[in-house]
Design a protein that fits this description.
Layout lengths: L1 E5 L3 H12 L3 E5 L3 H8 L10 H7 L4 E4 L2 H6 L3 E4 L14 H13 L4 E5 L7 H12 L6 E5 L9 H6 L4 E4 L3 H11 L6 E4 L1 H32 L3 H9 L20 H14 L5 H13 L2 H10 L6 E5 L14 H11 L3 E5 L4 H8 L3 E4 L2 H5 L4 E4 L4 H4 L3 H7 L4 E4 L6 H6 L3 E3 L6
Helix pairs in contact: 1-3, 5-6, 9-11, 9-12, 11-12
The structure holds uridine-5'-diphosphate-glucuronic acid.
Family: Belongs to the UDP-glucose/GDP-mannose dehydrogenase family.
Organism: Geobacillus icigianus
InterPro entries: 6-PGluconate_DH-like_C_sf, NAD(P)-bd_dom_sf, UDP-Glc/GDP-Man, UDP-Glc/GDP-Man_DH_C, UDP-Glc/GDP-Man_DH_C_sf, UDP-Glc/GDP-Man_DH_dimer, UDP-Glc/GDP-Man_DH_N, UDPglc_DH_bac
Length: about 425
């Protein structure tokens, strides 16, 4: 099929590459000329494992352009995958989605499907359908489909090619048939429903994960008070298939561009109908507090951070990505700088973002050893493989005081003690 995709972020680019890999012809459109130039030069503007070879392999079926008119005119399917960033009140900014819809109304010259992949509030698809029907410049019929995306950064290609389900929110058999034709080569199960339910599935899924993480973080906090071990507790409850083992890793809270944003957006959406989503509010509140756990723990050893050398391992919100949006590490770095600490940051992918954001206020280090050398405390925010595999003896050998406060439970408590570390982690007895 002939497909146009608006937006070359994680969702748009990965979807484009995967659809091209399945034989479709895809034009990616972005208003950002620099991104399009990079893509046409063979570079990838985001860090996403496996994406580059997939794009390279499918160059013949992929086009990258700023000219949306050309792309939308003859497209059978137009997918909207632009960002929906948060507004200060927790709701989402839909300007880019509406701009794309306006452009589609003006330029499409044949009947086409408009599939909304961006995460949008419940009811947006219905509004979009009304808008396109009213404003179409040419005599064309639009079918609007809600087709939310469930890929995670860092594993986005695999998540797309092997998704547990494809959600289709449709209001006609014609739209359902066409979407199934588009996804047929993926051979994945479908959930077919109405548009509003499909939009709600996306929020309900992401916010359930946020609830799960905040719940395990609170249980970890109670483990610390009682002497129970969160690792054993997570394993013990996770083996019950009704609960499941995944997303039960206690830590410094969830970050990224999705879970925090979607929890706030769902809360704001319910509030706009006069409903207070108490469970979601609790998850957001717990996450905000959890983000400061490492500093709270370190403070009991070193008191004041002024003139202390603090090594920060990990800036990305999780391993496998260079994304630092809503990363607990960044808020902590900002606080440490304000307190007068000497901050040394290591991250294998996100150091560029750190340097741009904090400039000379931090020292960016290319190796873990460089970051921890002569440090008074080391704070671990991201469980990168290099951190997990790091020789524990090196902390003792290189640090001024071997105080390691681990926000991702990277090491075995006994081994850390045996290596001579003063080791604090989340929800585990010393
Ligand atoms: C999330 C969802 O997992 C995807 O299904 C969804 O498509 C995506 O949002 C989106 O809406 O676009 P993502 O934000 O890439 O994906 O990352 P996750 O793997 O969900 O991790 C989010 C945060 O939770 C990270 O900071 C991670 O460290 C934290 N986390 C995750 C925990 O603290 N504990 C866990 O057990 C799991």
């Amino acid at each position: 099929m002939n497909i146009a995709i608006a937006g070359t972020g994680y969702v748009g680019l990965v979807t484009a590459a995967c659809l091209a890999d399945k034989g479709h012809s895809v034009t990616c459109v972005d208003v950002n000329a620099e991104k399009i130039r990079l893509l046409n030069d063979g570079a990838i503007p985001i860090y996403e494992p496996g994406l580059e070879p997939l794009i390279e392999r499918n160059r013949a079926r992929l086009r990258f352009a700023t000219d949306d008119k050309e792309a939308y005119r003859e497209a059978e399917v137009i997918m909207i995958a632009v960002g929906t960033p948060p507004l200060p009140d927790g709701s989402v900014r839909l300007n880019d989605v509406w701009e794309v819809l306006r452009r589609i109304a003006l330029t499409a010259e044949r009947d086409c499907l408009v599939a909304i992949k961006s995460t949008v509030p419940v009811g947006t698809g219905d509004e979009a359908a009304r808008f396109l029907a009213e404003h179409a410049r040419h005599r064309v019929r639009f079918d609007v489909v809600s087709n939310p995306e469930f890929l995670s950064q860092g594993t986005a290609v695999r998540d797309t090619l092997q998704a547990p389900r494809i959600v289709l929110g449709v209001d006609s058999d014609r739209a359902e048939r066409a979407m199934k034709e588009l996804y047929a080569p993926f051979a994945l199960p479908y959930v077919v429903t109405d548009r509003k339910s499909a939009e709600m599935i996306k929020y309900a899924a992401n916010v359930f994960l946020a609830l799960k993480i905040s719940y395990i973080n609170e249980i970890a906090n109670v483990c610390e008070l009682t002497g129970a071990d969160i690792e054993a507790v997570a394993e013990g409850i996770g083996m019950d298939p009704r609960i499941g083992r995944r997303f039960l890793r206690a830590g410094v809270g969830y970050g990224g561009s999705c879970l925090p944003k979607d929890a706030n957006a769902l809360y704001a959406l319910a509030a706009s109908y006069g409903y207070s989503l108490k469970t979601v509010w609790a998850a957001i509140d717990v996450n905000e507090k959890q983000k400061w756990k490492l500093i709270d723990k370190a403070r009991s050893y070193i008191g004041d951070f002024r003139n202390q050398t603090v090594a920060v391992l990990g800036a990305a919100f999780k391993p496998g990505t260079d994304d630092v949006r809503e990363s607990p590490a960044l808020a902590n770095i900002e606080w440490l700088i304000a307190e007068g600490a000497n901050v040394r940051v290591w991250d294998p992918a996100a150091l560029g973002h750190v340097a741009r954001r904090f400039g000379d206020a931090v020292v960016c280090c290319q190796t873990i050893e460089d970051a921890i050398r002569n440090a008074d405390v080391c704070l671990i925010f991201t469980e990168w493989p290099a951190v997990l595999q790091f020789d524990l003896g090196r902390y003792k050998a290189l640090m001024n005081t071997p105080l390691v406060v681990d926000g991702r439970n990277c090491y075995d408590v006994k081994q850390a003690a045996a290596a001579g570390l003063i080791y604090e982690s989340i929800g585990r007895p010393l």
